[in-house]
Amino acid sequence: QQQVKQSPQSLIVQKGGISIINCAYENTAFDYFPWYQQFPGKGPALLIAIRPDVSEKKEGRFTISFNKSAKQFSLHIMDSQPGDSATYFCAASMEAAGNKLTFGGGTRVLVKP
Amino acid sequence: NAGVTQTPKFRVLKTGQSMTLLCAQDMNHEYMYWYRQDPGMGLRLIHYSVGEGTTAKGEVPDGYNVSRLKKQNFLLGLESAAPSQTSVYFCASSYPLLGRAIEQYFGPGTRLTVT
Predict the structure, then answer these.
(1) What distance in Å separates the CA atoms of residue B41 and residue B104, rounded to the nearest whole number?
(2) Nearest CA in chain B to A104
(3) 3-state class (DSSP) for residue B22
(4) Sign of the C-alpha dihedral computed for residues A27, A28, A32 and A34 taken in this order
């Protein structure tokens, strides 16, 4: 049973467009929600993260929106660039469980020039 | 500062063979993790360690063993490889901050094929 569900599995967006990836979680004890970016042949790297006490966090062109009551969070990539083409993973963790990350299934994003 | 390194990068095993994957980190991190990545499944935690000499099971531990004899190294063993263990394996490490481990730093991965 996947505790973090991610959609869509893949996404194609034109350069300059907005990429939106959604995640839903089940366990209300999760208290840390990071997004990881992975390029082909590389390990994932932390992109941006949020805690449930805020509803939005922005870093450059990347924004996380968080809806605690709906148990959902999303990543928005504004002004998408070809260099953003990668696989994105949402994740969740809880301090009580040793901060182990539970990952979503991933979204492959392709930004067309 | 090499970060997290993994050895080997690629390996092909026959069913029933054994092998050990080595993870090393030079960031003095307390926590280390082993994940496997399969298409559409994201990354799933196999085993993890919160300090030298300690290990614990993750989400998919069956068929794997681990050891953390030194703080900087975390070994993942497959005693009798099976085709279902064909995957890309990632090691990660993190440090506790005010009692919490935050960002995990990942290695480049090991692609393992079991025939």
Answers:
(1) 19
(2) B42
(3) strand
(4) positive
Percent helix, strand, coil in chain A (nearest 5)?
Answer: 5, 55, 40
Q: What is the rounded CA–CA span in Å between residue B56 and residue B94?
A: 15
- pLDDT, tens digit, 9 for 90 and up, residues B62-93: 999 999 999 999 999 999 999 999 999 999 99
Contact (CB<8Å) A42/B108:
yes
Q: Cα–Cα distance between A34 and A4 in angstroms, integer? A: 12
Shortest CB distance from A104 goes to which of B42, B100, B103? B42
**Backbone torsions φ then ψ of A97, nearest 5 degrees:** -110, 30
What local confidence, expressed as pLDDT, does residue A98 receive? 67
DSSP-based three-state secondary structure for B84: helix
A69 burial via Cβ count (<10 Å: 0-12, 13-18, 19+): exposed
C-alpha pair distances (Å), B29 with each of A12, A72, A97, A99, B52: 37, 31, 18, 14, 10
pLDDT in tens, B4-54: 999 999 999 999 999 999 999 999 998 999 999 998 788 999 999 989 999
